[in-house]
Design goal:
With 181 residues, this protein is mostly beta strands. It has two helices and 14 strands; from the N terminus they run E-E-E-E-E-H-E-E-E-E-E-E-E-E-H-E. The strands form four sheets. Strands 8-12-13-1-14-11 form a six-stranded mixed β-sheet. A four-stranded antiparallel β-sheet has the order 4-5-7-6. Strands 2-3 form a two-stranded antiparallel ribbon.
Length: 181
């Protein structure tokens, strides 16, 4: 069983990089990003394009607003052939190249009780200061997932990290290892 998992982030230590907007429908209207960061199926206008909010160095994998993953199609074909996950994908044109807006659908309830969590008055999670994943609750065949308790974040397995690090692609991601118990 894989015991190394990582939270994926856009590596903001890389200066002068592009920043991407929320997706737009065919009429140029914004589609609010949280639709694609909760792990649920999307039902709404089809995403068609993304604007470059800040021009600069472009990557084969980038996160737009609210951590929406945009993956260049050639890189996504490698990921989808090598990794296990459920997703719905929307082809998006960014700077004359085809990317996939990937809505990762695997959501697991895996926060270990030893995690350091700050809650709101109503009991909902306000912030996770130190995430610990419960290894008994992580499916063995799941390389990308979100956690039910904090679905905005995207997590990946060691397998994903190895595939990307061994590729020739410039993806501009940061992998922060998560403790697993």
């Amino acid at each position: 069983m894989n015991t190394h998992y990582y939270e994926l982030w856009q590596d903001m230590s890389i200066f002068d990089q592009w920043y991407l907007s929320d997706p737009l429908d065919g009429n140029g209207n914004d589609i609010y990003g949280w639709h694609f960061t909760r792990g649920g199926k999307y039902s709404g206008p089809t995403p068609k394009e993304v604007k470059i909010v800040n021009s600069g160095k472009k990557f084969s994998i980038s996160f737009g607003g609210l951590n929406i993953p945009y993956i260049r199609r050639d890189v996504f074909s490698i990921i989808i052939n090598e990794c296990n996950f459920d997703s719905e994908n929307f082809p998006i044109i960014i700077d004359d190249e085809t990317y996939e807006l990937v809505n990762f659908l695997n959501v697991i309830k895996a926060v270990h009780p030893n995690s350091e969590i700050e809650k709101n008055d109503n009991g909902d999670i306000k912030y996770i200061w130190r995430l610990i994943l419960d290894k008994k609750k992580i499916p063995q065949n799941c390389d990308f997932f979100r956690i039910e308790e904090w679905p905005e974040k995207l997590y990946a397995s060691q397998k994903v990290k190895d595939i990307l690090n061994n590729s020739n692609y410039d993806f501009g991601l940061r992998f922060d290892e998560i403790t697993v118990m």
